[in-house]
């Protein structure tokens, strides 16, 4: 059965983007630090057409496994707006992408299997369309925070994957700010034990 999952990189203080995020300033001021770990991986570099090279190993395995399991993506219009001007012509998804928006638009077909569909009748409709498109593969709620919060609050997410970067941003777009409803999370063990050394 298809799983609906969120997979996002987040700063230790809970931000998925810094302040002033907009097309031309993706992830906001300082926000690229949240994603540095991924930019270094071979799989991400290949997907984003950054060139050859990049690291293999556990981080790369996670990025590759995440891409491989996805049959369809869902995103909010602000994430799309940043990506529209930044992604390569062969957009890095290779699946249908359902953009939740109030602005109707014809589908946007890119090379390499990515087509963006603009869904104006809400998150449940976008999810139904994504599940139908994904078949046996999984549906990723790709971001940004607004859309993820809505899916979490509506109880429509099965799995939440957070890549927690050792970064304190101090300001920006907080992923869990305003999540409503009784969202209960389970993990192996009762708590994640994290220990950091503070750079001087
Ligand atoms: N750290 C990470 O892993 C990660 C991953 C992805 C994205 N991001 C970052 O996330 C940020 C974007 O997140 P965000 O929270 O600002 O916005 P978002 O979730 O990407 O998009 C929000 C927009 O989507 C539309 N929308 C949302 N819900 C809707 C609904 N139910 N019906 C109709 N339209 C709806 C609205 O736009 P309209 O009304 O204008 O249509 C709304 O303003 C970006 O800075 C991006 O770089 C970070």
Task: Provide an overview of this structure.
This protein is an alpha/beta fold. The chain has one domain: Dihydrofolate Reductase, subunit A, CATH 3.40.430.10. The protein is 28% helix and 22% strand. It has helices at residues 32-39, 42-47, 58-69, 77-84, 123-134, 145-153; strands at residues 4-11, 15-17, 70-76, 96-100, 108-109, 115-119, 138-143, 159-165, 173-174. The strands form 2 sheets. Strands 5-6-4-3-7-1-8 form a 7-stranded mixed β-sheet. Strand 5 (108-109) and strand 6 form a beta hairpin. It is globular and about 50 Å long. The termini are far apart. The relative contact order is 0.24. The model has no long low-confidence stretch (mean pLDDT 96). Residues 8-9, 16-17, 21, 26-28, 34, 75-79, 82, 100-103, 122-123, 142-147, 150, 173 line the site of NADP nicotinamide-adenine-dinucleotide phosphate.
- The pLDDT mean sits at 96
Helix and strand sequence: EEHHHEHEEEHEHEE
Number of helical runs? 6
Tell me the radius of gyration.
Answer: 17 Å
Spatial order of the strands forming the largest sheet: 5-6-4-3-7-1-8
**Into which percentage range does the β-strand content fall?**
15-25%
CATH superfamily membership? Dihydrofolate Reductase, subunit A
Uncertain runs are none
Number of domains: 1
Protein name: Deaminase
GO molecular function: 5-amino-6-(5-phosphoribosylamino)uracil reductase activity
Pfam families: RibD_C
GO biological process, one term: riboflavin biosynthetic process
